[in-house]
Design brief:
Blueprint (H helix, E strand, L loop, with lengths): L8 H13 L5 H9 L5 H13 L5 H16 L3 H10 L4 H9 L3 H18 L5 H14 L4 H12 L2
Length: about 160
């Protein structure tokens, strides 16, 4: 009896309520999770509507929490956060709104601290290679290119 049992909508609802309650989720993640259950397309849509109506699923809240937490925990810049939210099919309006919630003074301070720490940690003797490693690191983290290039000039002149 290794056949996949048909999941009742109530069981799926309960599992997805738990899935959404312990961490903020976006619609894409929930739809991916729903594919694992053997239920009809109509029932999948009913589950998503239920989760939205009962505030388990909220894209605006997800975008806000995602952007703030990735900024604080992983020191991502706005470009990386924006790209990651776009990959999760979050609307441009919600992305813009979420990015505005990052305090600009804290954003600049974090960039300065991160860039100086990065610059000091690169042991490369060749100035061009050191510059490239520095820029690549910060650009990969999603920091604005004009900030990165300005900062590298400032740090090289020290």
């Amino acid at each position: 009896m290794n056949s996949k049992p048909t999941s009742s909508v109530e069981v799926v609802l309960q599992k997805l309520e738990y899935y959404c309650s312990y961490q903020e989720r976006c619609h894409v993640e929930v739809q991916e999770k729903l594919r694992a259950f053997d239920i009809s397309e109509h029932d999948r849509n009913r589950v998503i509507v239920h989760l939205i109506e009962h505030n388990f699923l909220n894209e605006e809240r997800f975008a806000s929490v995602f952007s703030i937490s990735k900024f604080h925990q992983k020191k991502w810049g706005k470009n990386r956060i924006k790209n990651e939210l776009k990959a999760r099919k979050i609307s441009d309006y919600l992305i813009t709104k979420a990015l505005k919630e990052i305090p600009s003074d804290e954003y600049e301070t974090t960039f300065d601290q991160l860039s100086e720490k990065c610059w000091e940690s690169i042991t490369e003797k060749n100035a061009l290679k050191k510059r490239k490693k520095f820029c690549d690191y910060l650009l990969r983290k999603g920091w604005e290119s004009d900030w990165v290039y300005e900062k590298v000039k400032e740090l090289e002149s020290k």
